[in-house]
Amino acid sequence: MPRNRVDGVIASWSHNCAAEVTVAVLGGAWKPVVLSLLGRNEVMRFGELRRAAGEPTPRVLTRQLRELEADGLITRTVYAEVPPKVEYGLTECGRNVQPLLDAMAEWGRDYAADVRRESAGGGADRENDPGDAAGR
Amino acid sequence: MPRNRVDGVIASWSHNCAAEVTVAVLGGAWKPVVLSLLGRNEVMRFGELRRAAGEPTPRVLTRQLRELEADGLITRTVYAEVPPKVEYGLTECGRNVQPLLDAMAEWGRDYAADVRRESAGGGADRENDPGDAAGR
DNA sequence: CGGGATCCCGCCGGATACTG
DNA sequence: CAGTATCCGGCGGGATCCCG
């Protein structure tokens, strides 16, 4: 059970926010995409997943998948045949994270829209003027 | 408007999941803690924030705060007095992210509990047995 | 008090090449 | 097809010291 990756984070969130655990689990370069793809496709083969995710290099995708597997979010099923065939799917934990992932995606979209808006539209910069705050 | 940090991520989530934007914004080492602290305290000074977060090094905390500011989540108010006084607070965007942060924290807690459970309790490992899957 | 300057290092992600 | 092996640059985070 090589869950050592997130273990450090889990161990030290006494004063930390538990959200850091979530970031540690979902924070890989291709993990959100992979999870959302598997959320819609039940099972996917390696190449299929790779193409759909946007052609990450095999090495990187492999590691992302192994980490997600070690963290208990996805399953990996190897079929002993030639040519090789490996199928990836979601565990229950992986399915449980979908609503959260959706919420994160929604916020991300809204945030990106905000950024675009203020980049394009006139910069309505608000200045903080402490002014008379020279107390003490 | 140095929002260049997340701009790259925002620009390239055509096939990606928008959740990556969220990770890019909240993905710093001390960002979740800072945001949740500011969510409960309205305004906080640098040292106050530092102690409450768990004593990160000033340099690191400063950068986290600058990034959050550049990303539009927090405000930074400098009072021109001696000794120096700087107060941090949430922008509207920073307040909007609180519910999501809570959801992430909740999932993180549940996940950590799951991990602890299966580490302690007997490993109820489920094996995948493709068995008769040698099709084609 | 609230940082900035400098140095360091581990890790993450990508490119390229090779294989059972 | 589904990876593995090797090399590499960048940067995120920490330690330590110094400053207005």
From TrEMBL, chains A, B:
SUPFAM superfamilies noted in UniProt: Winged helix' DNA-binding domain
Keywords: DNA-binding, Transcription, Transcription regulation
Presence of the UniProt keyword DNA-binding in the record: yes
InterPro entries the record matches: HTH_HxlR (IPR002577), WH-like_DNA-bd_sf (IPR036388), WH_DNA-bd_sf (IPR036390)
Record region (Disordered): 116-136
Pfam families: HxlR (PF01638)
UniProt entry tagged with the keyword Electron transport: no
Domain HTH hxlR-type: 17-116
PANTHER family the UniProt entry points to: TRANSCRIPTIONAL REGULATOR (PTHR33204:SF29), TRANSCRIPTIONAL REGULATOR, MARR FAMILY (PTHR33204)
Record protein name field: HTH hxlR-type domain-containing protein
Lineage: Bacteria, Bacillati, Actinomycetota, Actinomycetes, Micrococcales
